[in-house]
Predict the 3D structure of the following.
Amino acid sequence: MPTLDGKVKRKIPAGAQSGTVFRLRGKGLPDPSGHGRGDQLVRIIVETPRRLTPRQRELLEEFGRISGDGVSPAAKGFFDKVKEMFG
């Protein structure tokens, strides 16, 4: 992720959704009173492919079937969108 001091690496946890905000402590702007630096907030955007091969589509649909009722609301919305794209 780009910061004022250059790029830093940060692991994004599996299952992170678009819009999730991560705090990079001490990587923000300097405090006007001269007491350290603030935090930099980074919002992630998770992009999904627009074009899928038939095999990718098959695997994605299988994942949706396997997930069943245990799918979180955000993930369920994703699969609903996928169904709309191919339905």
Notes: The first strand starts at residue 2 and ends at 3. The chain has a mean pLDDT of 81. The helical segments are 54-67, 73-86. The two ends are 37 Å apart (CA to CA).
